[in-house]
Design a protein that fits this description.
Helix content is about 45%, strand content about 10%. By secondary structure, the chain is α/β, with parallel strands linked by helices.
């Protein structure tokens, strides 16, 4: 079972027994053996109380209930943007230094879940997810690219095109979740009162593309016919000093253009995608990770190890099919 918002009100601090029953119990009276938690607040720039309530509280409540019921595997979705910046890809045991409120709460949630007795936990740390129908952070950048095609100006990125932007295809992300659940279930409960774990339970998930910001810029240029520029490290530091004003002006312009594009296309109902960028996404979060442990431990292989040359056009086609794309 994959949890997004099934029977649980994320605006409350706890679940009722009735709502937990709707989450964990099946129609035939049995309960789910495998639980994958994809729920919680995924947007940036909220206050701590929002993440504490909508993400942390959700995960801990579900984790405790999964432990009480003896669920065979509980998979928690976390973030790979939590490591201290380093030149080499970060491994699961490397030092953590999350910079965004969202990712700080991801780390706190990981730590609290690990303390729940009897929870058959596995944590997957994801980089930037891309692909058909995905509505994550990269989607907002893609939408910005569409508006800049209309505006007719170059799109400027912070830092250099060589900046890492690790990725994973959305289908591979889903496959990794299922692989993690079935693998963890096969291992059984951890022995009580043991100083060290007999097997790892936290994994980085990342393709073999070594994706860079320049790869995203190249895709935007090919699909929208726009020019992408990079400020470099020094100019980026100056820009960050005034980033709130810059981002507010950028959002105001792109959202207005986006609305006009939707109206011209006859799309009257706004979908889940837009060019709006939140302030915290500009923080220098590191997503350079080593995902070899998951592959070596579970035998998982990626269907798309590298970015397809036309990956962005297939994403746009999926949005068009949903009538989201102008």
């Amino acid at each position: 079972m994959c949890i997004r918002d099934r029977g649980y009100r994320s605006d409350r601090t706890c679940c009722t027994l009735e709502s937990l029953s709707r989450v964990f119990d099946r129609a035939n009276g049995s309960q789910y053996d495998l639980v994958i938690n994809c729920g919680g607040e995924s947007r940036y720039s909220h206050q701590d109380d929002v993440y504490r309530l909508r993400s942390h509280g959700l995960s801990i409540t579900l984790g405790k209930e999964a432990a009480r019921r003896g669920v065979k595997a509980f998979v928690e979705c976390s973030s790979a943007a939590i490591y201290k910046v380093d030149d080499k890809p970060r491994k699961e045991t490397d030092k953590l230094k999350p910079l965004q409120k969202l990712t700080k709460w991801k780390v706190t949630t990981e730590e609290e879940l690990a303390k729940i007795d009897g929870l058959n936990l596995v944590v997957l740390r994801f980089p930037y997810v891309y692909g058909e129908y995905d509505t994550g952070l990269l989607t907002s950048v893609i939408c910005v690219g569409r508006t800049y095609k209309e505006i007719g100006r170059p799109l400027t990125f912070l830092y250099a095109k060589e900046r890492p932007l690790n990725t994973v295809w959305v289908v591979d992300a889903a496959r990794a979740l299922w692989t993690a659940a079935t693998w963890r279930a096969s291992k059984g409960p951890l022995p009580p009162n043991q100083d060290s774990q007999p097997f790892p339970t936290t994994f980085n998930i990342v393709d073999h593309n070594n994706t860079l910001k320049g790869d995203l810029a190249d895709a935007l240029e090919r699909n929208f016919g726009i020019k992408c520029e990079f400020l470099g490290s020094l100019m980026s530091q100056f820009a960050k000093m005034n980033q709130e004003q810059i981002l507010d002006e950028m959002n105001e312009e792109t959202l207005e253009v986006w609305s006009e594009l939707l109206l011209a296309k006859g799309i009257t109902t706004s979908g889940p995608i837009s060019p709006f960028l939140e302030k915290e996404v500009l923080k220098d979060a590191d997503t350079t990770v080593d995902g070899s442990l998951f592959e070596q431990t579970t035998g998982f292989t990626y269907m798309k190890e590298k970015l397809d040359p036309d990956w962005l056009s297939s994403v746009i086609k999926s949005y068009e099919q949903m009538n989201w794309w102008p």
